[in-house]
Amino acid sequence: MENYPETLSYIDRGYHDYSYYEAFYFAAQAGQEALLRFPDTPRGRSWRWWLGNDLMQSSWFADQGKPSNYFVGLVSTSLNSKEMTVDELPEWISANMPDVSATLIQLEPIKGFIGNYVLQVNSLVLWVLEAPTEFQVYPMMDDFYYFFRKIETKDMTGDGIPEVLILLARDANFIGSVSTISAFDLSQVPFRQLTFGSNQRNELRWGGWSGSMVQPGDNHAVIQIQNSYLVGCPIYRMEEYFWNGYWFDLEKSHFKFDSEDATGLTYCDQLYLGSSYLDAKPNEIIPLFEEIQPYWPAEDNYFVPEPDAQDELRFRLGVLYALTGDSKKAIEHLTDIIDNPTIPQSSWIAPAKRFLAKYETADDLYIACITTSLCNADFVIEQSVQEMGITDFSSAIEKLESLGIPIKSSTLLDFDRDASPEYWFTVRHPNRDEIGFWIIAQTSDGLIAHYVDTVTTYVPPIKMFTATNEVIFQIGPGKMFTYQTSPRGEPVIGEYTIPEQISPAVLIRQNFDQLREMFYAGENPLKVKDGLLSLQESPDFVCDLREESYLLDWQYPSYCPDFYYLLGLTYELSGDQGSAVRTYWQVWRDYPNSPFAHMVQFKLEPIP
Predict the structure, then answer these.
(1) How much is the pTM?
(2) CA proximity to 233, closest of 208, 267, 205
(3) For the chain, which residues make up each domain, given as ranges?
(4) What are the tens digits of pLDDT across the range 301-351?
(5) Alpha-carbon distance 546 to 606, whole Å?
(6) Cβ-based neighbours of 59, under 8 Å, separated by 6 or more
């Protein structure tokens, strides 16, 4: 069974080798049984390492966190038995698992310990602490779906003790790779994972990461993330995150354009023109658009741009300048389209005229903005509140209405339960169908407006819930959010997902997994057998969960052959040979294509 995954054909390996990695599940089962049956075999050492490799490769066991716990046991047992020293760990692992990469990082000892290490084995990372009398090993992370890229150590929190940052990556079809950055505070036991804010991200897309994750910032270190949204596109989004005492917060961001690869703009197509509004401010986009303007639009044998594509970029620049309050440059760009279009029949002349017909002063921005879908009217609200210099909520609403913004409803509500209420309001832009829900909060720098989501009515039924460490509010069916306040007083709002209810059939599957773990850990086979029979007798017992339409078959696949094979094994090891034969025969008869059927064939003797 150890070689079973390698017997799969190219087609049988599945999309992105999913079925190949799934197949290590069966190899791991065989390995656990072998070690249980023959604990003192001379081959036990190699079998244990094979089992470790199978657990790491198995998508199922990796999802359950089994590899990290297994290697914690291997490493701690070997260190405490003095089989090898901590410095020999990488060589010891590589000697037993030639296909893996192992690295040991030594850190300054923390209080109560004389040694402090981080051990990386592929995407598995362990924390190894040396006390005066023993070694302690803790699993930090084990992400099957990602591959290890790099580890860095840097003091991110300002306490003088370096944190550990880990970059993992995985393939993501045509966009190249998707990576995650994780940070850990190892100043005390247990360690603490440092998180990104609920409206921030630690996931990045990249077309070729280079350089260090951590860079010097303004009096503190920052995590620098480089995003490339499509392979071949020479535009990158650079973001810097700093530790604000509670989470990693976005400090600054900008776009970077590789002009030496300007022909690659064909890969960007309309990407940055169309979606750059989604998560970037106008003052970030303007330098990018000005930098790519001499090269836009890019053209090759496969992509022929619209003849007035240059005018579209100029129009967007004019609107962006208006959004930043630079009315002079906005008018210059839009007027130039009218007076000097790329082609006489440019489709951007009319939009420029409509915008300028409404736009004379900065106070006309909203009315002009809603004349085109290429102007983000929500940003007008955000920018107007930030710049008006008003600290009174009611006055802020009156000012927004004077700018032509159609406020439909508004009132006070204490979202963060700090006895200092915020103000919510709803808006329906004339050029949109949906209704937007906003919150205005008081910060140390004045008022700030935060867009939350769309609602179905001007006065949504708001419900408030208090969780352990956060406030949760609901503005409609399926629209629940957490509300926190950053150290700078800004609202941090994130989506809240209600945990899915686990069906009784899935609970039984989880109980089966627990019984299997108990069995291979040395529990009495009779006790495990009784537990399995109790599960089987339950009216909720369904071992083929793919039949339940509301469950994804890859999340809880059919475990019928697994269940009956383990039941047969408990019968066998408890001395009930007749029941064992009948149960093994059931596996062979009912699930002939399962690897468990092949395993029972070696156990059953044919009747002459």
Answers:
(1) 0.81
(2) 267
(3) 145-303, 306-375, 395-496, 501-607
(4) 777 888 999 999 999 999 999 999 999 999 999 999 999 999 999 999 999
(5) 33
(6) 18, 21, 22, 24, 25, 144
